[in-house]
Specification:
globular; 2 domains; mainly beta; 1 helix
Length: 216
């Protein structure tokens, strides 16, 4: 194959972060990705997503069919085998693993595979995630949890919910804010209307942004 100069190559399309690049490490040529290089050069890891939330707690069990992108699912069945949800966002196929769906069609529902989700939990559009497996749950009226497997390092993590306060009229005040639940594992999103906890106050058009940064 004839050699081609870099300047003669076709331009790339939009980067996804999964593109493979060669680097030299310990006198050996190895591969890495655009995302890994980006997370190393930054002083922090980041999770950025747009949130929506509507309705109250409504747990549902699903045993077949398509998933909904942005919804948090929980692997609940322990009597079957051979399911595979790793192509739709699950970091593994272990019982009690939670994940936000990134695709609709699992590799396999296997034998008696089952997922549980709560229609009242926030639904997310993930814009960027270099932190790892982050998922959402319904904790009560106007109270939702953002969870991880101890990925939110104590004293090195910040979280912003925007807009965190907005007023529709002179008398109607909606308040959204984020607070710590358990350092390293989870944080809470609180939504209220006129100082009373209330569901369905996050913008239905997805304009409420959550950004979490974990510094090195």
């Amino acid at each position: 194959m004839a050699s081609v100069k870099i300047t003669e190559l076709n331009p790339s399309g939009p980067l996804t972060g999964s593109e493979v690049l060669p680097i030299v490490q310990g006198n050996e040529t190895v591969k890495t990705t655009v995302q890994e290089i980006g997370s190393f050069t930054r002083p922090y890891k980041v999770y950025t997503a747009l949130l929506t939330q509507s309705g109250g707690s409504n747990p549902i069990t699903k045993t077949s069919g398509n998933l909904t992108i942005g919804v948090t699912y929980f692997i609940v069945n322990d009597g079957g085998d051979s399911w595979d949800f790793t192509n739709v966002g699950a970091p593994n196929n272990d019982i009690e693993t939670s994940f936000v769906a990134t695709g609709t069609t699992p590799n396999s529902w296997g034998n008696d595979g089952a997922l549980e989700y709560n229609e009242g939990a926030p639904v997310v559009t993930v814009l960027e995630n270099t932190i790892g497996n982050v998922w959402f749950s319904y904790g009560g009226v106007g109270y939702y949890q953002v969870n991880s497997n101890e990925l939110f390092t104590a004293d090195k993590t910040t979280a912003i919910l925007s807009p965190n306060l907005y007023i529709e009229t002179d008398t109607d005040v909606y308040t959204n804010y984020v607070s710590w639940t358990s350092l390293e594992s989870s944080l809470s999103i609180i939504t209220a209307y006129n100082n009373a906890y209330q569901d369905s106050t996050l913008n239905s058009n997805g304009n409420v942004m959550l950004e979490i940064k974990v510094y090195n």
